[in-house]
Inverse folding.
């Protein structure tokens, strides 16, 4: 049962990766990066349920934190430069 | 209990599929940001609630993660939207300008 859901989520991550590689402006790429971060948090929770390891949830929390910091720092870079 | 959890997880992953299709289809950066923030927030909340139903012993960590996502996701979207507007991106279909002409 979990395999089907994990494969669907991986397909949607790869669709978002297309926008990340193609996106015309920098803002498109930052938005796609943010969405991929949120999707990989859910993917890690599903993998924790599938392998029965609660350690993966800590890694999901860390990925959420780093994704938010990355989006905030790129927003400041777009607005004001380095 | 397992069935309810799997139902929530399936609905959340369907929200992620809607978000991925919208990020391909939408014409400009503001609409992409709209579809990439709202539906991923509800998708993450549904997946974490479903995981709480399946494994009740992990529910403290999962609810902490859900609260964190619920706090930071609109914040990062707001930061990116403000930076994009300062950078000078325009809408593809602007209803306000159409009405003024």
């Amino acid at each position: 049962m979990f395999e089907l859901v994990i494969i669907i989520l991986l397909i949607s991550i790869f669709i978002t990766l297309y926008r990340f590689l193609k996106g015309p402006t920098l803002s498109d790429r930052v938005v796609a990066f943010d969405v991929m971060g949120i999707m990989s948090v859910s993917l890690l929770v599903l993998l924790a349920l599938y392998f029965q390891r609660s350690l993966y949830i800590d890694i999901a929390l860390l990925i959420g934190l780093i994704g938010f910091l990355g989006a905030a720092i790129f927003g400041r870079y777009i607005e004001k430069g380095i | 209990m397992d069935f309810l959890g799997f139902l929530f997880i399936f609905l959340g992953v369907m929200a992620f599929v809607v978000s991925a299709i919208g990020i391909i289809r939408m014409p400009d950066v503001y609409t992409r940001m709209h579809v990439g923030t709202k539906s991923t927030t509800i998708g993450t909340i549904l997946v974490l609630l479903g995981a709480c139903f399946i494994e009740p012993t992990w529910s403290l960590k999962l609810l902490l993660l859900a609260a964190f996502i619920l706090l930071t996701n609109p914040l990062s979207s707001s930061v990116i939207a403000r930076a994009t507007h300062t950078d000078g991106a325009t809408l593809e279909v602007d209803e306000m300008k159409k009405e003024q002409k």
